[in-house]
Amino acid sequence: MRRETEIFQVDAFTEQPYQGNPAGVCLLDEPAIDSWMQSVAREMNLSETAFLTRSGHEVEVRYFTPEVEVPICGHATLASAHILWEQGLVELDRDIVFHAKAGQLYAKRESNWLCLDFPAKPVTPVDVPVGMEEAMGVRPAGVHQIKGGGFLLEIESEEAVRALRPEFSLIRQGRFGGIIATARSSSPLMDFVSRFFHPEIGINEDPVTGVAHCSLGPFWSQRLGKTELDGYQASARGGFVRVRPKGDRVDILGKAVTVIHGRVLQ
């Protein structure tokens, strides 16, 4: 039997429990073996669970979906920073450095917002890949390849984004990677809306996706001429993300709330 391990479930990119995107945050005394972390992530059955090994304000982080390890995750990093500050493991006025497989990620507090500093993921216009329209059930107004993989689809309206009903089996077959669907918001309170689909890693639709905003921020900043934008991810749970593109990096701001605190016994 393993020593008991502290674990939390945090709803990220929301102030309200049971909204936003739930992430697991597991606090480790020392690095754990991959197979155990994968088993815990499968048991948690959330889109991602983060495993943290801390040395002061420097934190090694690993992210697992129920099926695979991924190199970077926005909402699980936001959830991790929230727990480290909430539990008094890092001083409230101290920034956090996360060492992830995708590189160094940073977190700081801005009033009642948590701010992540992530690498930007620029997009390039491309032709519609074969099979994508059938898989997504819509003809996009524009298709853009995301640096590092996946696609950003510009959709004609917020209503069309909300109405999307993708065929997840066809997305898997097409091996498109993660797909962001986005449109300008019809609300004066928001700049854009989005949804995110990545069935190849076991996430048919992610409730709120921080990393998607590494592309959405620069994309909409260029179109709208704004340096700070507010986005809403229109999943069933929904969540709000503020973004500030800054060259090859992006600030991603959100809020978070802890909903479960327990221990892994095995």
The CATH class of the largest domain is identified as Alpha Beta
The biggest beta sheet is recorded as: 18 strands, mixed
CATH topology of the largest domain: Diaminopimelate Epimerase, Chain A, domain 1
What's the number of structural domains? Answer: 2
Q: So, CATH architecture of the largest domain? A: Roll
Q: How many strands?
A: 18
Explained architecture:
20% of the residues lie in helices and 41% in strands. It is α+β, with helices and mostly antiparallel strands. It folds into 2 domains: 5-119 and 253-264, Diaminopimelate Epimerase, Chain A, domain 1, CATH 3.10.310.10; 123-247, Roll (Diaminopimelate Epimerase, Chain A, domain 1), CATH 3.10.310.10. Strand 15 and strand 16 form a beta hairpin. The radius of gyration is 18 Å and the shape is globular.
What's a concise summary of this model?
By secondary structure, the protein is an alpha+beta fold. It contains 6 helices and 18 strands.
